[in-house]
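so i finally got all the pieces together for this one. its two components total, 379 residues if u count the protein bits. some of the lines might not be protein, just check the labels. i wanna see the whole assembly predicted at once instead of chain by chain like last time, that was a mess tbh
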Amino acid sequence: METVLFGISAFSLVLVGIYGVLTRRNIIKILLALNILETGINLLIVSLGNTPGGKAPILTGSTAPVTPDTALFFADPLPQALVLTSIVIGLGTTALALTLTLRYFRSRKSLELGAEMTREEAAE
Amino acid sequence: MKKRNEGFISLSAVILLAALGFLVFSALTDGRPGLNIGSAPLEKRVSFRYLTKSVNSPDQAEIPAAGVEFGTSGYENGSANIVTSIVVDYRVLDTLGEILVLFAAAGGVALLMQERNKKIEQEASVIVKTAVPVIMLFALVVGAYIVINGHLSPGGGFSGGAVIASAFILQFLAFRKNPRSTGFKITETLAGLAILAYGLIGLFTQGSLFANFLPTGTVGEFLSASGIVILYTLIGVKVAAELSAVSGNFIGGEE
């Protein structure tokens, strides 16, 4: 049940993201939608590792020894580790995309897709 | 801007989303074995090996019967945080690639931001200038704590590095002081080279890149988990320098 709930929330975020990417014309709005889409995908991946009632996969003084039987009490750690990578790469791509957007704005004086170059820039 | 094909684009968006939604919903709820992602038992997943710290032993019988317990030693990895043991030990090559991607992004931002228009700046108010050093101190301490406790509690080099970078961003915003200094680039380069050197020591002493050459220690102690503290500290320094340099490029200002 929890997994389905997570899946529905993740899918709603992906839905908002894809809709924004496909229908917006402002580059900043497209990047925002791309980030929402990415959040949805990260949530989906983490939710796949969810065990009903599972704890965070960290050994503490109060956790029982992890044996083949008690390993089930933890959430799956692998998706969480992979999502960490995905978040950092998302940050890098967003920073680079914003830089490119700034250059685009400098030459076109507009953030709309398909804007024409201003006269001074085109003359160069 | 002309609104050409607006209806067609919206229609295809809705159709694409409906197909995607059907796929995700059926993958989550289909009861037949093998179709539902949640139907795979944990014993059949890779994560089972990570949780019981038995990746190097191919046979299930080799898993210690007493299990992995807090405060004991002698495992192939001594990290109490199992996610960290995957990120910085078992799948460290992923992390190396991640660091390279972040490096490429930071380098790209620095390259594209070279010709920066000088913008009119407003001086920060007295309140901001007084409060920022205090907040900076707390942010640096919390960031350092998160970085060096990555193997014991949630956290690590990436999140802690981001917290440290936020302290520097506050400094840029309040004082406009050297936001594009070369110090960040030198720090970042040195930390990156140190990470590679750590991997190469593993290659030459143990025979594979990033192999553990330090003792694994006791689960739960600060100096445990064979080099995760060292690696995560280096990653934290590198990420903090990279993010500070990227935001310094965006904020701009005098050299």
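The radius of gyration of chain B is 24 Å.
The mean pLDDT of chain B is 81.
anyway lmk what u think
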